[in-house]
């Protein structure tokens, strides 16, 4: 017989809208109360029955052992249900603690001789569960609504624009032209009472509003805040930072700067998530940490055998390594030294998990390549935030090292590495690959006439045009001063020619404004395809030759190698 | 079935409290006819008689999980093409893609707001025709 919602017979199902909402509210309130009871009951069962039996070593003792295993299974089931329902009723922290707790409890059940480390970790999680209940609901419905909102995959979130009526039209036009949609809010204070309910890529605030910093303060923490301001002196920047402003863009509007920030914030959200490698011979604990990190949106690989670490790094390209300090045979410190023997891994952050209290050994570990310590049993909340913080910085640093500072594109060395990589891939799959090399025409005279700042603007404009018009899978590099290179996987040279020529035609028409007047810029390009077994050098010089043919033929055109 | 208004939803969720609140919300606010099931097995037992237009499945369930339940449900007569929505904890875009590959129309991430769930389900249902 099918169960009735809320245990109500059909005849008593409420009908009016208000009654329905009341009934739902009551049901929710009941559920929340039961949630608390379930947390307490789980903690009580652990403390009074399960833990003492585990400590007494009953798992291996006949009938008592079976009762214990059953109790562990039941506790794991209770943890599972808490992880499913906690968030629904406004307690996401209960879900966050209950999910790894389930894993640990199942591990304890399946391990005939439970390890002390697992018991401690279970203790820690049960304490976290209790604390999560006692802390009360987090934001109630709004929290649930945010988490539950339906996010279409790969749709750019809108920009929230705060500007005076006079500037709104212009700013909207600029932001729309950068490929973002806009939600507009005027300067009226009433509109600012409530921060935006929907997710936004960023908020853009114009400093001509009354009290712009107060607007920023209201928005800070809900989404990244960009302040457009005529005053970029230090005191103004400091005041903005205090109001929670993430980015300052100077007026008269630096469109490229604004574009870079918006792309940065939009890209930040669609990042595939940090890649973390966990090295721990204790598989259960490794999986527990992995679960917590995955729930926070990270991609996690685990390795139990220290000798496989180097291969695992090569295979997963982690942003950070989380490593147990005490492992049999190879300890963490030694392993960190091995990892640091490779130059590429010098900047890879390593976090140690350690029950180690010895300050001297901790110093030694730091000196030999560890970046930080996380005490065991692990507070998973702290673990997540520590890992995220470190990984974020490591990624930002790597981006600085590998990309060109003016355009954010790959630098020359990294681009050449990608050429070799993509050539090998194309050969493996028998798929076509094209390489285009682009060079701005008469760039020196732009610099001479209008100055280097204007020249830089042209370079960034071309960089943006390439990023916008090419596919996500295409690889773009800044090859030299005014030279760019593009790799187009799965593309025959003829198709690459059509794509690059389309960009060329548009770019040549777009006017640049400078103090010395209005001007246009153009580029020439040469394209080469990959023939079976082509070497990177040969492909690059073929594209180069085509580029010079295009220059000789009068510039502002794209030519194929060999034509 | 194409173009028909959504009425009958088979809903599988192992947590009793979530099941009650969600069930009532879907019935009361969405005016749907709901068949709530506590497990994949219960869903298999009742699906044929209920003849759902849509399957709403929790992903993580003890015993038979959501994707397996969907697979088994689709083997039943009349349900080979039944559209399904998965419900699961916070998801990444690539996971959404994986659930879609498994045959889901879409994924609703948990925790969700019971008050807006009906609209969300209806949007996904209406969006499926293009």
Explain this structure to me?
Chain A has 563 residues and is of the alpha/beta class. Chain A is 53% helix and 15% strand. Chain A contains 19 helices and 17 strands. In chain A, the strands form four sheets. Chain A has a five-stranded parallel sheet with strand order 2-1-3-4-5, with helices on both faces. A five-stranded parallel sheet of chain A has the order 7-6-8-9-10, sandwiched between helices. In chain A, helix 2 runs antiparallel to helix 3. The longest helix of chain A is centred in the first third of the chain and has 39 residues, at 17-55. Chain A is globular and about 90 Å long. In chain A, 36% of the residues are buried. The model of chain A is unreliable at 1-12, 140-155 and 192-197 (pLDDT under 50). By secondary structure, chain B is an alpha/beta fold. In chain B, 43% of the residues lie in helices and 22% in strands. Chain B has a five-stranded parallel sheet with strand order 2-1-3-4-5, sandwiched between helices. The two termini of chain B are 15 Å apart. The relative contact order of chain B is 0.18. The mean pLDDT of chain B is 86. At the A-B interface, helix 1, helix 2, helix 3 and helix 5 of A face helix 1, strand 2, helix 4, strand 5 and helix 5 of B.
Short description:
The complex is a heterodimer of chains A (about 575) and B (about 130). With about 575 residues, chain A is of the alpha/beta class.
């Amino acid at each position: 017989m099918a169960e009735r919602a809320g245990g109500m017979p059909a005849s008593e199902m409420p009908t009016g809208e208000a009654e329905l909402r009341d009934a739902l509210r009551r049901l929710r309130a009941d559920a929340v109360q039961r949630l608390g009871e379930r947390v307490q009951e789980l903690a009580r069962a652990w403390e009074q029955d399960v833990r003492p039996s585990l400590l007494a070593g009953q798992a291996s003792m006949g009938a008592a052992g079976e009762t214990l295993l059953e109790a562990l299974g039941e506790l794991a089931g209770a943890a599972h249900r808490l992880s499913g329902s906690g968030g629904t009723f406004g307690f996401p922290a209960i879900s966050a603690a209950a999910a790894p707790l389930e894993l640990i409890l199942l591990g304890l059940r399946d391990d005939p001789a439970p390890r002390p480390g697992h018991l401690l970790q279970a203790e820690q999680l049960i304490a976290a569960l209790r604390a999560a209940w006692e802390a009360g609901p987090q934001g109630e419905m709004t929290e649930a609504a945010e988490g539950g909102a339906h996010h279409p995959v790969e749709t750019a979130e809108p920009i929230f624009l705060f500007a005076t009526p006079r500037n709104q039209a212009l700013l909207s036009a600029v932001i729309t032209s950068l490929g973002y949609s806009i939600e507009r809010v005027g300067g009226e204070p009433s509109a600012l009472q409530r921060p935006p309910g929907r997710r936004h890529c960023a908020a853009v605030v114009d400093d001509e509003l009354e009290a712009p910093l107060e607007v920023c303060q209201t928005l800070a923490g809900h989404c990244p805040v960009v302040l457009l301001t005529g005053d970029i002196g230090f005191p103004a920047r400091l005041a903005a930072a205090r109001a929670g402003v993430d980015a300052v863009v100077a007026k008269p509007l630096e469109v490229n700067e604004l574009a870079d920030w918006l792309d940065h914030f939009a890209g930040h959200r669609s990042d595939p998530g940090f890649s973390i490698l966990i090295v721990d011979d204790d598989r259960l604990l490794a999986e527990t940490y992995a679960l917590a990190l995955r729930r926070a949106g990270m991609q996690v690989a685990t390795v139990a055998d220290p000798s496989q670490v180097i291969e695992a790094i090569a295979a997963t390209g982690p942003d950070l390594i989380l490593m147990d300090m005490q492992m049999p045979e190879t300890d963490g410190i030694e392993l960190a030294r091995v990892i640091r023997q490779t130059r590429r891994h010098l900047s890879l952050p390593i976090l140690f998990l350690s029950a180690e209290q010895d300050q001297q050994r901790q110093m030694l570990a730091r000196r030999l390549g560890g970046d930080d310590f996380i005490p065991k049993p692990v507070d998973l909340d702290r673990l997540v935030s520590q890992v995220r913080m470190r990984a974020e910085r490591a990624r930002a640093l790597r981006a600085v090292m590998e990309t060109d500072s003016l355009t954010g594109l790959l630098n020359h060395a990294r681009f050449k590495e990608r050429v070799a990589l993509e050539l090998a891939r194309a050969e493996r799959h028998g798929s076509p690959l094209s390489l285009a090399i682009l060079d701005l025409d008469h760039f020196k005279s732009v610099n001479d006439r209008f100055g280097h700042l204007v020249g830089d603007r042209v370079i960034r404009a071309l960089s943006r045009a390439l990023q916008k018009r090419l596919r996500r899978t295409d690889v773009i590099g800044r090859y030299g001063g005014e030279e760019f290179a593009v790799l187009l996987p799965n593309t025959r040279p003829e198709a690459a020619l059509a794509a690059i020529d389309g960009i060329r035609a548009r770019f040549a028409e777009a006017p640049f404004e400078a103090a010395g007047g209005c001007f246009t810029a153009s580029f020439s390009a040469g394209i080469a395809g990959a023939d079976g077994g082509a070497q990177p050098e040969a492909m690059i010089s073929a594209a180069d030759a085509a580029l010079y043919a295009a220059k000789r033929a009068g510039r502002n055109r794209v030519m194929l190698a060999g034509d | 079935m194409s173009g028909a208004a959504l009425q009958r939803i088979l809903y599988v969720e192992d947590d009793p409290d979530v099941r009650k609140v969600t069930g009532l919300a879907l019935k009361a606010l969405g005016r749907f006819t709901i068949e709530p099931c506590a497990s994949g097995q219960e869903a298999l037992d009742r699906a044929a008689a209920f003849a759902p237009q849509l399957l709403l499945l929790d992903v993580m369930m003890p015993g038979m999980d959501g994707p397996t339940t969907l697979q088994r449900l689709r083997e039943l007569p009349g349900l080979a093409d039944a559209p399904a929505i998965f419900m699961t904890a916070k998801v990444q875009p690539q996971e959404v893609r994986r659930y879609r590959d498994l045959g889901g129309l879409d994924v609703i991430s948990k925790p969700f707001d019971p008050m807006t769930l009906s609209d969300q389900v209806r949007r996904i249902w209406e969006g499926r025709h293009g």
